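Sorry to interrupt, but I need a hand with the structure work. Please put the record directly below this note.
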Amino acid sequence: MSVAICPGSFDPVTVGHLDIISRASRIFDQIIVAVPVNPLKQSVFTVEERMEMLRTVCAHEGLANVTVDKVTGLLADYAREKGAMVVVKGLRAVSDFEYEFQQALTNKKLNPQLETMFLPTEAENMFLSSSVVKQVAGFGGDIAHFVPPCLLEIISRRLCKTP
């Protein structure tokens, strides 16, 4: 059975995240969406909230071969523990590649059996990131096209400011 990991902060989950997870779920037998515990990073949503949002959207989309878990240590070690041979990362632009390539090489050094697969985002999501969602929502903008419909209310409640 082929197992792949889709790691990310998912703060909050976007339609771009969902696109990558969904496409990866058609390539591999099992996908583990991994949410890292990073005490150095300020997140709007807790790890548990992000995991619940991911479970909700994956169930809503019928992604039966996708599970959600948290990672408390190195991704390379986590992949070894879970029997995953591939990390799937979405790329929006060349600027993403530089950082993700560095991460891929680090993971490969730490776990030589671990490969990284890059999936280019769909063109309509090239600009989209969790930061964009937070910024638009913070200024009272409509984020309905940026987040999965089943999560719009919970994300809006936390992020949206009314003018």
User: Anything to note?
Assistant: The domain at 3-127 is CATH 3.40.50.620 (Rossmann fold). The longest strand covers residues 30-36. The chain has one domain: 3-127.
